[in-house]
Amino acid sequence: MTTLVGSLRVIEAGARVYRRTWRGSVISTFLNPILYLLAMGVGLGELVDEGSGGASLDLPYLTFLAPGLLAAAAMQTGAGDASYPVMAGIKWRKTYQAVLSTPVGIRELLIGHLGWVGIRLTFVATVFSMIMVLFDATTVTEGLAAIPPAVLTGLAFAAIVTAYTARLKNETGLASMFRFAIVPMFLFSGTFFPIEQLPSFMQPLAYVTPLWHGVELCRGFALGIDFTVHPLVSIAYLVGWMVVGAILAIRILRRRLIA
Amino acid sequence: MSNLVEARNLTKHFDELVAVDSIDFDVHEGEAFGFLGPNGAGKSSTMKMIGSVSPLTAGTLEVLGMDPAHDGPKIRARLGVCPQDDNLDQELTVYENLLIYGRYFGLSRAVIDERATELLHFAQLEDRRDSPVEPLSGGMKRRLIIARALINQPTLLLLDEPTTGLDPQARHLLWDRLYRLKQQGVTLIITTHYMDEAEQLCDRLVIMDKGKIAAEGSPRALIEQHSTREVLELRFPVGTQEINAEHLEDMASRVEVLPDRVLLYTDDADKAHAAVLDAGFHPESVVSRRSTLEDVFLRLTGRTLVD
């Protein structure tokens, strides 16, 4: 059995499980973008546009914000699908153990897992982009162009978070990760305001977060505006996180599950 | 008769811990082979190495004529594995669990549907086909795990502590199903710390303790070789087992003192009972029985199987 075939079987299993569990996540997929864009984009946005923000942003706040939220939603989906569900597969429900007693191996399990998360991300990003179109924050073509960078952002997080989760003894480490890594990134990586607004010592920190690169790419493609760094640099950076995360995840899962 | 599994000097270390300490054994085609031993004896570690999900530390292992280190996926394609822990997908139905598992083996949906019908009949779960897994009883989940392990029509079925945690009725039902599989010619490897399970199911077994094999043979041969035909169990008032036992030495070929009773090993329990009463002892209760694998384990290791 090739790696591809094995991975496809894992993706298929992911889809079958999702058929039973989609209700919980699909509501937030549609509702979250609408709520965020209404509250932060329309509500807060009017104040920003009327205040000093209007002059320094040179585009409506809603338009500035929406692609940032798209990248952040991808991050949250990727990190979410790679945290508690992975812990369940390893420890709570031991479903990974069941998979590994078949011809499917660790590599196929991990690639299939990321493949399924990629499909989920494509769905989440597509819904988000089209809601952005409804809010007049992007056009259909540019909205579609922002989907691949959003999926890549989500996958970068999914890979590294899977590796992190695979090392954890219990779930307290997951709550800490969201509290001390995911939420701060969400707030300070250029989603809500340009990082030039940050104190200068914090700006380099923002540049190294994968989310900032994701936000940059989504914003550039969705709005057709200039990138701060060359988009290929950001793409390479995110691919790097994804590949390194995947390699680490395979190693750690192997040590943990095939001891 | 060909060997489906051949292990020589099979060894497994976890850091400093020696889980399996250079053991040799063969599993013949068509037999039910057991690993009997207490928790921590190295049974599950051995099982994982046979299941080709755990690399050997040293020694050699051949499963279905292949090397697990190189042909893991090919070996696993022909194994059925019932793990000690319930690892069913709780979010899916009974049938869906068989379906996704069968798909991991690359079976077509049509083949899986056909086999699922047979297997659910075999596991007595036909009327639960479309129920979620989560509310099933422990015995039903176990039977579903066995049905799932059979979806690829395995040559060799690995059962790790198959009835641990089940009530007596559920255990007997499960034993009956495993017995039927044996009749159909499926080779079984079973780990257990229940001597009655080993006696019921295994044609041949090894007794494991602290990573080593203490003895090997059929349940009958092991009992004949390492124990007497019968056992007289005497229960004396709390705290006086030792004192009473001292005076019973010459009434049996061997005497074992447990915290709550004294065991007299003899070929004629009734005669030994009469001798005990004649000598003026007044045990609170007396049971005479045949020797079991528990007695063999006690003889070989000085400890009981289940603490």
Explain this structure.
The complex is a heterodimer of chains A (259) and B (307). With 259 residues, chain A is mainly α. Chain A has one domain. Chain A contains twelve helices and no strands. Chain A has helices at residues 3-50, 53-57, 61-81, 84-92, 95-100, 106-134, 140-145, 147-167, 172-188, 203-208, 210-223, 231-257. Chain B has two domains: 3-218, Rossmann fold (3-Layer(aba) Sandwich); 228-290, NusG, N-terminal domain (Alpha-Beta Plaits). Helix content of chain B is 36%, strand content 27%. In chain B, strands 5-6-7-3-8-9 form a six-stranded mixed sheet, sandwiched between helices. In chain B, α3 (94-104) crosses α4 (109-122), α5 packs parallel to α6 and α8 packs across α11. Chain B starts with a strand and ends in a 6-residue tail after the last helix.
Strand line-up across the major sheet of chain B: 5-6-7-3-8-9
Overall body shape of chain B: globular
Shape of chain A: elongated
Helix/strand structural class of chain B: alpha/beta
